[in-house]
Amino acid sequence: MRILLTGGAGFIGSHIADALAARGHEVRLLDLLLPAAHPAYPHGQPDYVHHELIVGDVRDPSTVDSALRETDAVCHQAAMVGLGVDAQDLPLYASHNDFGTAVLLAAMDRAGISRLVLASSMVVYGEGRYLCTEHGIVQPGPRAESDLLNGEFEPRCPMCHSPLSAGQVPEDAPLDPRNTYAASKLAQEHFGASWARVTGGSVIALRYHNVYGPRMPSNTPYAGVASIFRSALQRREAPRVFEDGGQRRDFVHVSDIAAANVAALEYDAAAGELTAYNISSGHPHTVGDMAASLAAAYGGPAPVITGDYRLGDVRHIVASPERARLELKFTASVDFADGMKEFAHAPLRG
Predict the structure, then answer these.
(1) Residue 181 catalytic?
(2) In the chain, which end has fewer C-beta atoms inside a 10 angstrom radius, N or C?
(3) Kindly report the CA angle at 212 between 209 and 218, in degrees rounded to 5?
(4) What is the torsional sign of CA 82, 126, 339, 239?
């Protein structure tokens, strides 16, 4: 296939581009090279990009129309990432993530392209799945700041306030975005679903879990927690772990994310609808464990548990990988310990 890959010069996009090319697909990249994720490159583009690159904005219809020429499918990775620093970020996320997706979908309709793979995120779920011994499956609301200030980090049953046990979230769980980025990713899914119904096209939304690996951007407030910890270690500073470090996440190596995108693009998806898949390993770890593993592999210093918190963060989010395994035939292959050893010394950007 001939595939347009938006955000193709970025952390995840560049790995997808390499994986697609290795499968024999033709790849064209469209990337704005946002300064929040990219330094100034001496030759105008990253030295790890070996595919046709259009430096342009997915929000510009003429740029997208040109990029879509002679294309069979689109893999849409372009987005602002991170939770959002403050309320002033709202227009940026809405513009880059949501308006950009709308422009892309309209251009795909004009070009007669009916296959889209969309980078979504586990953040659309809000908190993960919880079980109360009395009330069964429940969905806790946002944690109160007064509880966080007192070091009470675990959500409680919204009906009886009892402790909860956390489980795996399936794709049909209620969606409850808790921050700016999450709201923008859910809006992307809604736009994609609407486009599919109107055009008869197919959309596969891949809900990534915590991605890490080579080429992550460093020293930016929009980076993921793995990059933040790795950047601290590179400065010989201790990773600073929020809350008590007990937050559970599923850390997925970027090569597995790339493999999932290849599987999705090669899958015969249902026409006229959006289908979502959790892209996770199924083997969660706490943020504290991740920080300790990364620091040990790097050679210290050891992480510091701060007790700090960020409003909008969730406590536990672990998803079931079964739908992706059964339908896309995708299973994450990089072991957590091996991945952290590699990431401890992998090059970062910026």
Answers:
(1) yes
(2) N
(3) 125
(4) positive
The whole-model pTM stands at 0.95
Sole residue written with tokens 């790339």:
258
Choose, from 130, 181, 267, 277, the residue flagged as catalytic: 181
Peptide bond into 239 cis (omega under 30): no
Q: Is the pLDDT of residue 302 over 90?
A: yes
Q: Is the pLDDT of residue 84 over 80?
A: no
Q: How far does CA 312 lie from the centroid of its chain? A: 16
Residue pair 248/285 in contact by the 8 Å Cβ criterion: yes
Cβ(178)–Cβ(314) under 8 Å? yes
Using DSSP, state whether 116 is helix, strand or coil.
strand
Residue 201, phi-psi category: left (phi > 0), alpha (psi -120 to 50), beta (remainder): beta
User: How much is the mean pLDDT over the chain?
Assistant: 94
Contact 188, 96 (CB under 8 A): no
The structure tokens listed for 348 are 């970062």
Q: CA 50, CA 9: separation in Å to the nearest integer?
A: 10
Q: Taking every pair of C-alpha atoms in the chain, what is the biggest distance, in angstroms?
A: 62
Average pLDDT over residues 27-46: 89
